[in-house]
TrEMBL record:
Coiled-coil intervals: none
Source organism, top-level taxon: Bacteria
Enzyme Commission code: 3.6.1.3
Protein name (record): Glutamine transport ATP-binding protein
Subcellular location: Cell inner membrane
Protein family membership: Belongs to the ABC transporter superfamily. Drug exporter-2 (TC 3.A.1.117) family.
Organism: Pantoea stewartii subsp. stewartii DC283
PANTHER family to which the protein is assigned, alphabetical: AMINO ACID IMPORT ATP-BINDING PROTEIN (PTHR43166), GLUTAMATE_ASPARTATE IMPORT ATP-BINDING PROTEIN GLTL (PTHR43166:SF9)
InterPro entries assigned to the protein according to its UniProt record, in alphabetical order: AAA+_ATPase, ABC_ATPase_HisP-typ, ABC_transporter-like_ATP-bd, ABC_transporter-like_CS, MetN_ABC_transporter-like, P-loop_NTPase
Mode of membrane association: Peripheral membrane protein
Pfam families from the UniProt entry: ABC_tran (PF00005)
Keywords associated with the record: Amino-acid transport, ATP-binding, Cell membrane, Hydrolase, Membrane, Nucleotide-binding, Transport
Length: 210
């Protein structure tokens, strides 16, 4: 186990029924590192990411995220607020504006005031280049813009680690670049990131581990 690692997996195993997907996987991710997971469909890369983010329980082994032992069920919920997650699907509420989508969890889960949530939400939208679209609804945004709103929503909780699960695979090819550029910007800022992707153009530029 690497001292002060942002993420540590130690001998992780995972099976779905009779199919073993992960067999004693061990790795460390340093603070500020970008780990890119590339592999064929069904190779287990998304399962690794979901275990790291606390969305999936491993069958065996130990997982540490920001010093929190996710393998300890009593501590696993402590990860909330430490990580942000961006999925393939945008999962935006169609009846809420871009800003409303970003601030919803801040108000409901983190109990921020509307003013505090709006300030943090606008800062997150500015970070992904969409401050001028804060009042737009998802139907008024392109797919790339919707995914950038989803990234802003994750950033608004001020995570230490960002997880991206095929964040560009649902986009038309001409829209992939704008989302990848936001992700590259986060990498340049020193955000710890784990990225599952099939976009080879992203991986070689940003990740020492592949």
């Amino acid at each position: 186990m690497m001292k002060n690692a942002a993420i540590t997996l130690s001998r992780i195993t995972k099976s779905f029924g009779a199919t073993q997907v992960l067999k004693e996987i061990s790795l460390d991710v340093s603070p500020g590192e970008v780990l890119v997971l590339i592999g064929a469909s069904g190779s287990g890369k998304s399962t690794v990411l979901r275990i790291m983010s606390g969305l999936e329980k491993a069958d065996g082994g130990e997982i540490w995220v920001n010093g929190i032992p996710l393998h300890d069920q009593k501590r696993s919920r402590d990860i909330c607020g430490h990580v942000g997650m961006v999925f393939q699907q945008f999962n935006l509420f169609p009846h809420k504006t871009a800003l409303g989508n970003v601030t919803l969890a801040l108000i409901k889960a983190q109990k921020l005031s509307v003013a505090e949530a709006n300030a943090r939400g606008m800062a997150a939208l500015e970070r992904v280049g969409l401050a001028d679209r804060a009042g737009h609804y998802p139907s008024q945004l392109s797919g790339g813009q919707q995914q950038r709103v989803a990234i802003a929503r994750a950033l608004a909780v001020q995570p230490k680690i960002m997880f991206f699960d095929e964040a560009t695979s649902a986009l038309d090819p001409e829209l992939v670049g704008e989302v990848m550029e936001v992700m590259r910007g986060l990498a340049r800022e020193g955000m710890t990131m784990v990225v599952v992707t099939h976009e080879m153009g992203f991986a070689p530029d940003e990740s020492p581990q592949k």
